C-alpha cells in the first residue's frame, strides 16, 4: 500500500515519477490504438453508431432501385418456399416486360429444382408412362435460364471460409489493378457456392452476397471486392451497378509500400466505376451511411405476378429479388438499431455507390492521437505547475468538446468517420496522471473501498479488501456466486395487528440476527426488502467454497429463525416461520447506480431462482429449499431430494433438495425408498408416501408428494404454476 511516507522514502525522485506516470499513459494509449483490442474496436463502433443515429442518410426516392420481395403475402398467395423455378422464371420475364434494366437474385441456385418434372419422375419408378410424360416436359431450371435471355440478370453467391471441391462462380467482372496487386490487401476466402452451370451461363454477372457483421452482430462495413484464391469477385451491390452501367472492367487503385504517395497509406485506395472513383479502406471495405428502413423501395412478388405492379416503379431500374418473409430471409442489424432483411444491405450499398454517400474511417486517426497527447502532455504539465488547477481543467474540457464537434462536422461535411471517444478518454487519463499524486490516489481508493462495502460486507472482509485492493474488481463482471434468500411468513398480517413501534423493534432484532449470521459466514448483503434478506457469496472477493458457505449460512439462519419465532410466540406475538432458498449460478456483480447512488449487487437468473426456491417452500411445506447446483458443490452435506422443479416461466427443470435438520435416519431411509419408487414411476409410490405421511405427520413434504401422487401425478418432475 502506497503512503505519503513510502513516497517520500522512495529511491525514485519525485520529478522522475511525475514524468513516468504520463509517459506510461501516452505509450499505453498509443499501443492500444495500434493493436486495437476488442474493447477499443467496440468503442469506435459505438462512436460511429452514435454519429449514424444523429445524422442518418436521407431516403433518395429518385434512385433507380427496387426490391421485389418474397414476403409473407407472396407465400400466402403462391405457396410455401421454395417455389418452383418455373414460377421464378415467370417473375423474371414479367419484370423485364415491365421495363426492369437489371434483375439481381439474392437467392442461391446451387442445386437442381426438386419440383422440376425430371426430379419428380424419380418418385414414380413403377409408372413408366408417367415418367415418360414428365421427361417430355421442360425442366424448371431450363425455363429459368431461358427467362435470363430477356434481359440482364446477376446471380448472388455466398462466400465459403474453407475450400471445397465445388466449382467457383463464373467471373463476369474483370478487375484491372493499378499501382500494385490488390490481392495482397484483400482477405482470402476458401471458395464460393456457385449456381448451376446452366443458370450461371445465362447470367451476365455474379456477386458475393455474404455480409459479415462485427462482433456485436451489426453490419457496418461491406467489402467491395472479395478474393477466392487468385480470383477477384465484386460485392453483389457493386456487380449490380457494373451491369447496370454496361461496364466490362473495374479499375482498382492500389498504393504499394514501395511507391505510395506522401500522406497516403499503403493498400487499396478505391475502385473506379466508369468515370467515378469510390474510395475504400486499405482492405477494400466501405462503411455504409445507413438510412432508416423505407418500405417504399419494396414491391411484393405476388403483386408483380398478379399484374398489379406499377411499371413506372420498375422502368429502367435495378431490381433485387430476395426473401423478406418471417423465418425465410436472413436478418441483419444496422447501426440505427433496426433489424432489417439481409437484402437491405445490398440495396443500401447500391444506393451509396449511386449517390456517392460513402463513409470511410479517418486514416490519420493514430497520427492525430499521437500529436494530441504529446502537445497536451507539455501544455497541461506547464499549466498545472504555474496556474490554478481550474484552468487546466477548462483547457482539457475545451479540447474534448472540440473533438466531439470535429467528429460531427467530419461526418456530415466530409463523410469521414472519426472516433472522439478514445482520444477524449486518453486525454482524461493523461490529465489524471499529471494532476493527481499517487499517494492521494491510493488514499482515495482505500476510502472508497471502506465507504462502498462497509454497508454490505462483514467487517473482517472490509479490512481484507483494504489490505488487498488488487483482488477487488471495480465495475461489472461475470462470476459464479451462491445466494441465500429468506422471507418471513405472515409478517404482513402481523403488521395489521400490532403497533409500529413494537414492529420496528421486532423486525430490527430479527434482521440484526440474520445479518450477523451472514457476516459470520463472510457473506455480502445484497439487499433487504422489508423482512426479506438476500445474501450472496463469492463477491466482491472470490470464495472457492461459496456454495458450502451459503448452505451453512442458510442452516444457521434457520436455527436462529426457529428459536426467535418460538421465543416471540411464547411472549404472545404470532411471529411466523422463515422460508429460505439457496442457489448457485453465474451472475453479473458490480456497482450500479452511478455517482449519486452506489449499489453493489448481483444481477442474473441465479438470484431469481434462489428467490423462487424460497417461495416454493410454502407449497412444499419445507423451510429450506436448496438447488442441485448448490448441492453439487457440497457433497458431504446431508439432504433429501425434493424433486425436479420446473419453475414458473421456465422450460427446464432444476433439482431441489431439503437439508436434513430434524429428520431421523429411519424416517429418512423410508423417504428415500419412497422417492426412488416415485422416480421410477412405480405404482407402489402412492402407498409408500401415504404410509410415510401417516407415520410421520410432522413431515409436510411427504404429505405433499402423497397428495400429488393420489391426484394422478407421476414421477419427480413438478411444474410450478405460481412464483
Overview of this protein structure:
The chain has 723 residues and is of the alpha/beta class. The protein has three domains: 4-56 and 362-436; 65-356, no CATH class; 474-609, Nucleotide cyclase, GGDEF domain (Alpha-Beta Plaits, 2-Layer Sandwich). It has 25 helices and 30 strands. The strands form seven sheets. Strands 22, 23, 24, 25, 26, 27, 28, 29 and 30 form a nine-stranded mixed beta sheet that branches. A six-stranded parallel beta sheet has the order 8-3-2-17-1-16, with helices on both faces. α16 (438-453) runs antiparallel to α17 (459-467). The longest helix has 26 residues, at 389-414. The chain is flat, with a radius of gyration of 35 Å. It starts with a helix and ends with a strand. Mean pLDDT is 87; it is low at 1-12.
Strand-helix topology:
Blueprint: H1 4-9, H2 14-35, H3 38-54, E1 65-70, H4 72-78, H5 85-97, E2 102-105, H6 117-121, H7 128-136, H8 140-148, E3 152-157, E4 159-160, E5 174-178, E6 188-189, E7 191-192, H9 197-202, E8 205-208, E9 221-223, E10 225-228, E11 231-234, H10 236-244, E12 249-255, E13 267-273, E14 276-279, E15 285-288, E16 298-300, H11 301-305, E17 318-323, E18 331-333, E19 339-341, H12 343-355, E20 358-361, H13 365-386, H14 389-414, E21 416-417, H15 421-435, H16 438-453, H17 459-467, E22 477-488, H18 491-497, H19 500-520, E23 524-529, E24 532-537, H20 546-570, E25 578-592, E26 599-603, H21 605-620, E27 624-627, H22 628-631, E28 639-646, E29 654-659, H23 665-679, H24 684-695, H25 700-710, E30 717-719
Parallel strand pairs: 1-16, 1-17, 2-3, 2-17, 3-8, 5-12, 6-10, 20-21, 25-27, 28-30
Antiparallel strand pairs: 4-7, 9-15, 10-11, 12-13, 13-14, 15-20, 18-19, 22-24, 22-25, 23-24, 25-26, 27-29, 28-29
Helix pairs in contact: 2-13, 2-15, 5-8, 10-12, 13-14, 13-15, 14-15, 16-17, 19-20, 23-24, 24-25
